[in-house]
Design brief:
By secondary structure, the protein is of the alpha/beta class. Helices cover 29% and strands 19% of the residues.
Length: 380
């Protein structure tokens, strides 16, 4: 399909503006828009195969009625509220702080685990990061800061430069990370802004790098323009890695994951994490069971070079990043890659697995009701 380069700064904010949707589709999706906001770039909409109702890129940005089906899932599936120390700053793991600097993305992923931020009555981000910076100054164990939200590359270049300068004045902050899907959703934000590239080059120092945490979910997002954006970021001193959740109907097969990870590694963008999709409200149709997810991951790894195999398959659980290692004899083997409770760091868990289990909570609820060894393996 021919790529469409659209001018930067243009966004489609209403489903009524998506000309490829029928009037019946727009009407049926109106209630979804009242619950969860819609936003997309003309560039990304131009990549969708509108003749295929199951097109994976369509699933990423176009709502479905299933998003508002009744569910027991919550908006803050990883309990990020408990990690908020001052407005706009989360501190869960000792070395890492998150600054939530914007509530805006170029497009809104339908599977977003922070969709609560885009609701009118939620105010977790902060344009004024002075309190967050002061918190970071008082905590010398913090050596890396992730700018997220929202999408950090939706900030103006001038504002990003100000934040970079302030963080570089804090000696113990060695890494600045940018959480972004802009290289996939609106790569011209990068290719068309020489000042942004100069700013990254200025503050990505040889011993204190800027990392771009890219978010490509499917190989078709790797267009010529997005590849050029990645090339320019690397050329101007950024270290670029990629993370993606495993998403039903988008990338839940080994060939797709293998192609995505291989293509990224060829460009010098190593895969970082493959995440189990968080059980956030509205995400039911994207869920993949733990057993299926691990089989997909392992089959995909068989098709990858060693450099593409560096990703870890993890859950970002309230208690920490839980790596999914193996399944054997009806049990799943997990390990804390990061832990909120330092006593859990590097801890192994061996828990009974059922075919429909999708999240750690599914596992430990059952184990808590069972006597003996399994209960002792719980994270709480």
């Amino acid at each position: 399909m021919k790529e469409k380069l659209q001018s930067r700064g243009r966004f489609v904010r209403k489903l009524d503006q998506v000309g490829q949707l029928t009037e019946a589709e727009k009407k049926s999706l109106a209630p979804v828009g009242q619950r969860f906001v819609f936003r997309a770039t003309p560039y990304y909409l131009g990549l969708i195969d509108w003749e295929d109702p199951g097109d994976p890129l369509r699933r990423i940005v176009i709502p479905t009625g299933a998003e508002i089906d009744e569910t027991e899932d919550v908006l803050d599936a990883s309990d990020e509220a408990s990690n908020t120390k001052v407005r706009g700053l989360q501190h869960k793991y000792p070395q890492t702080a998150l600054l939530l600097v914007t509530e805006v993305c170029a497009s809104y992923c339908r599977f977003c685990f922070r969709k609560r931020l885009f609701m009118d009555d939620v105010h977790e981000t902060s344009m004024d990061i002075s309190e967050g910076l002061e918190y970071i100054r008082r905590h010398p164990e913090i050596n890396n800061v992730l700018l997220t939200g929202g999408d950090s590359l939706m900030l103006s270049t001038r504002r990003l430069g100000e934040i970079f300068r302030q963080l570089r004045e804090i000696e113990h902050v060695r890494i600045i990370r940018l959480g972004t899907k802009v290289p996939a959703f609106e790569p011209s934000r990068i290719t068309g802004d020489a000042e942004l590239l100069r700013t990254i080059a200025k503050y990505s120092e040889p011993r204190r790098r800027i990392y771009v945490m890219a978010h490509f979910n499917h190989p078709r997002e790797l267009t010529d323009l997005s590849r050029e954006a990645l090339r320019l970021l690397l050329e101007h001193g950024a270290i670029v890695v990629n993370q993606t959740p495993l998403l039903g109907g988008v990338n839940d097969d080994p060939d797709t994951i293998a192609e995505l990870f291989n293509e990224l590694s060829y460009m010098g963008v190593p895969p970082y994490y493959l995440f189990q999709c968080r059980p956030t409200e509205g995400n039911d149709t994207f869920k993949v069971t733990l057993g299926t997810g691990l089989r997909i991951f392992e089959k995909a790894r068989e098709k990858m070079s060693g450099l593409a195999k560096r990703a870890r398959f993890c859950m970002s659980h309230a208690s920490g990043k839980v790596e999914i290692l193996a399944i054997s004899n009806g049990q799943i083997i997990l390990k804390y890659h990061q832990a909120k409770n330092l006593l859990d760091r590097d801890r192994l868990m061996v828990l009974p697995l059922k075919p429909d289990d999708c999240w750690l909570d599914d596992l430990y609820r059952r184990a808590a009701a069972s006597p003996g060894r399994e209960a002792a393996a719980l994270p709480y």
